[in-house]
Amino acid sequence: MTRLRSLVGDAAGHHLHQLANGYDPRAVTPVREEKSLGAERTFDKDISDTAQLKRVLLGLSHDTAARLRRHGLRAERVGLKLRYSDFSTLSRSRTLNHPITSAHDLYTESAALLDHLGPRKQAVRLLGVRAEKLGASDDALQLSLDGREEEWGAAEQAMDRVHSRFGPGVVRPAKLLDPTVPNRSARDILDNT
Predict the structure, then answer these.
(1) pLDDT tens, residue by residue, 28-50
(2) How many CB atoms lie within 10 A of CB 189?
(3) Same domain, 27 and 83
(4) DSSP characters for 153-167?
(5) Four-point Cα dihedral 158, 162, 163, 166, nearest 10
(6) Host domain of residue 26
């Protein structure tokens, strides 16, 4: 401890010594307010195909939206993250006209961000979507002039209820189904519960 005090001073040396020995009188605050939620995926093989990237983006949007709803949050900004094969990373975000909770809206905005980037000069190694500028949700469905957000929100809340009862992935958008894997029917699921 003498050497430590000579390097950083008496007070800092004593404090670091205490911490190193497991003594920290500060209160533990295990819960902190989330500033953003998101999901990302690193690919085994880099992807160049935009349609394939958008399919992954749809799945990430559903994962992120489910977490938003589970935590009772809404997002006012959507972010997109790309890491290329040379490990350079690019992120873009867009502030929305109204807060959202639906995967449909997350996907629509993040896919628009991806399209706005234009042609890519190299393949993508990692893709991510983030819901940012979070605020508390009042559990009401999103309001819009055309009513589309309410429809998507209701459908996704129904998916959340199915997932909580039967497990994740039982219900998902058709675009996320793998055509090479036989899908279980609703009867198979109900017979096994």
Answers:
(1) 777 666 688 999 999 999 999 99
(2) 15
(3) no
(4) HHHHHHHHHHHHHH-
(5) 180
(6) 1-32
Give the tens place of pLDDT for each residue, 77-126: 999 999 999 999 999 999 999 888 888 999 999 999 999 998 888 999 99
Q: Is the pTM of this model over 0.70?
A: no
Whether 142 shows a pLDDT value over 50: the answer reads no
Q: On the CB side of 131, how many CA atoms lie within 13 Å of its CA?
A: 34
Give the position of tokens 């040396």: 13
Residue at 192 is within a domain:
no
In a domain, 160, yes or no: yes
Q: At what angle do helices 103-116 and 50-70 cross, to 10 degrees?
A: 140
Size of the chain in residues: 193
